[in-house]
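Tokens for chain A. Residues wanted.
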């Protein structure tokens, strides 16, 4: 297979489209982020790259807590809305049904099948973005998104973002079992 050079690009697939929540000016606010990943197993941590101009970043830096909410694919319109409009200009606090967990100040989205409640442990300036690293204080998972008390990806139905085409997708077929398919001859 021949390949073409296209220059340095942010093309790592798939990218989950998540909703980052925080309090700012005494109001819950949410932004869409696709540059989000697990950063550590012990302590459990997540990393999110956020543009410096984002209103939500101000709230995270001020409160030191935030949530990472994993929306299902049927939430694409609301997720896109939260990425298009800034909380500086639009009040996004009533778009979703909200709750608060153990931290009491990181807004969680009830409609999202998975929500991570995080405390800020590191903030790293990377140029256009600030990398926020949060320790996961608690994970909330909808009961109906489990099989044998474990998360079921197809039931969670996470929204996937593709940067090259600017499209949203959903998960497809299972292609093999991790830590097993590599052992097959």
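Reply:
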């Amino acid at each position: 297979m021949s390949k073409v050079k296209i220059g340095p690009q942010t093309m790592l697939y798939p990218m989950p489209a998540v909703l980052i929540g925080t309090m700012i000016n005494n109001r819950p606010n949410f932004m869409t982020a696709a540059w989000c990943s697990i950063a550590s197993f012990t302590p459990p941590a997540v990393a999110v790259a956020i543009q410096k101009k984002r209103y939500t970043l101000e709230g995270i830096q001020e409160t030191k807590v935030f949530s990472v909410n994993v929306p299902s694919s049927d939430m694409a319109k609301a997720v896109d809305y939260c990425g298009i409009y800034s909380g500086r200009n639009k009040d996004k606090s009533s778009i979703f049904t909200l709750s608060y967990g153990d931290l009491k100040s990181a807004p969680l989205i009830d409609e999202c099948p998975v929500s991570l409640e995080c405390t800020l442990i590191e903030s790293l300036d990377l140029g256009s973005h600030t990398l926020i690293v949060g320790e996961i204080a608690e994970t909330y998972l909808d009961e109906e998104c489990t099989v044998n008390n474990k998360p079921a990806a197809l039931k969670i139905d996470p929204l996937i973002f593709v940067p090259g085409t600017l499209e949203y997708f959903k998960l497809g077929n299972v292609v093999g079992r991790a830590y097993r398919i590599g052992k097959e001859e």
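The domain at 15-183 is CATH 2.30.110.10 (Pnp Oxidase; Chain A). The chain has one domain: 15-183.
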